[in-house]
Amino acid sequence: MDGRHEQNGLRWIADAYPISFTLTLSEGLAAQELLGSLGADAEHVVPLTRSAALELLTRDEEDHISDLQFLDWEDEAAVARLTSGGFLPTPPDTIVRAGAVAGWAYALEEFHCRTGTYLAALSQRGRAWSIHRNAKGFSRIDYALQGKPVTSFEPGLPHLTHGTSAEAALGFVHSGHEPGDVAFLRFLEDALGLWLPWEETEAELPAAAFK
Length: 211
Description:
Layout: H1 3-7, H2 12-16, E1 21-27, H3 31-37, E2 46-48, H4 50-58, H5 76-84, E3 94-101, E4 104-109, H6 114-117, H7 119-122, E5 127-133, E6 139-145, E7 148-154, E8 157-163, H8 166-170, H9 180-192, H10 198-202, E9 205-210
Antiparallel strand pairs: 1-4, 1-5, 2-9, 3-4, 3-9, 5-6, 6-7, 7-8
């Protein structure tokens, strides 16, 4: 295990995704179950690296698929899988990539926050969190427990909380000069003892495209 990630088990995500990101954690689910809870059909899930997903998200529809560096565009089967899955020819609105670690499923989105809408469904077997930072640098944390939403809040801005306060629901209080999402990722590291391996999140993970 990389010592940097051992000491920085979840916080590295805020640095690795500097523009915008969503990290979702769902207790007791497998990666495929997480994607299914978002509405993905199992036959349309495709393994993708982070760089491949980013290429698909940011391409122009009129660009030829030969411009995709990760894809052999003459591989008809691969092109057909991506097309039937909604990755091609029109760029999807978002791509959710999912994995699992230590009894938790996790999902990563580069720009959007589809998982936040489905957090109650993602908490059917326990707890679920969604940590989202948008392109303007604002962050929002959502938490659900056993199928019910508990709280939605922006760290450091308690007047924008929906539901139970973060302190009452989780024991989390944002203080200091650290960005709110980083502070909450640190809090989860300590509370859950979780770390995500950077190498795994960059490599191929089951991925679903959503319009």
